[in-house]
Amino acid sequence: xxxxxxxDDALTAKQLQKLLKNEKYSSDIATGYNDAKSYIxxxxxxxxxxxxxxxxxxxxxxxxxxxxxxxxxxxLMLSANSEIDDRVEVLxxxxxxxxxxxxxxxxxxxxxxxxxxxxSKEKSSLIRVANVTLNITTHxxxxxxxxxxxxxxxxxxxxxxxxxxxxxxxxxxxSEHINKDNYAIKQSNVIDVHIKNLRKKxxxxxxxxxxxxVGYKITQSx
Length: 222
Fold this sequence. Notes:
By secondary structure, the chain is of the alpha/beta class. It folds into two domains: 2-123, Response regulator (Rossmann fold), CATH 3.40.50; 127-217, Winged helix-like DNA-binding domain superfamily/Winged helix DNA-binding domain (Arc Repressor Mutant, subunit A, Orthogonal Bundle), CATH 1.10.10.10. The chain has nine helices and 14 strands. The protein has helices spanning 10-22, 33-42, 59-68, 84-92, 105-123, 152-163, 171-178, 182-187, 190-201; strands at residues 2-6, 26-30, 47-51, 53-54, 57-58, 75-79, 97-100, 126-129, 132-135, 140-143, 146-148, 169-170, 209-211, 215-217. The chain has a five-stranded parallel beta sheet with strand order 2-1-3-6-7, with helices on both faces. Strands 8-9-10-11 form a four-stranded antiparallel beta sheet, covered by helices on one side. The chain has a three-stranded antiparallel beta sheet with strand order 12-14-13. Helix 6 packs across helix 9 (190-201).
């Protein structure tokens, strides 16, 4: 389980990382607002520990930005602000929990376990590749924070690709996935048409790569 620690105080960050290591969590440290955005863009996390006051930005604004682009990873906000209004604002902005400093390590770890159990259930419905997020449950697709409209066949193809990152899928496999008519599977170029439309709607001709003579695939860096 990989945790992102967003904390501009180096000593506090290192203490948190040591605590998590002792509990068998792996973790990365982001030292501020911009550093955190870079980590979130590149890697996936099961939990984010987010300090409100960052040296180069505001943790609450970062939280709002994360939620706007449909990143649903559980977020535990850590802050010395203890006023009720502050806690309400944090939760309304998309945090899953709020813990006031100073806090006990026992309570922090307990709250992390609760969020990780919750997150493991919810995360299974979301697939994210680069700036594309697909929600299996709601049948929604987002490019950055903007929802895009796909046909049923386009959604099914995109879901198949995103569930099979780095795996080359043949035209036959793709056709079979959206069409049970054997004649249509063998004769139609409909897959090429759907992929052309998907590339256009995703505003990225390289999101779905053409593997000459074999089929298509996507990668995490698409």
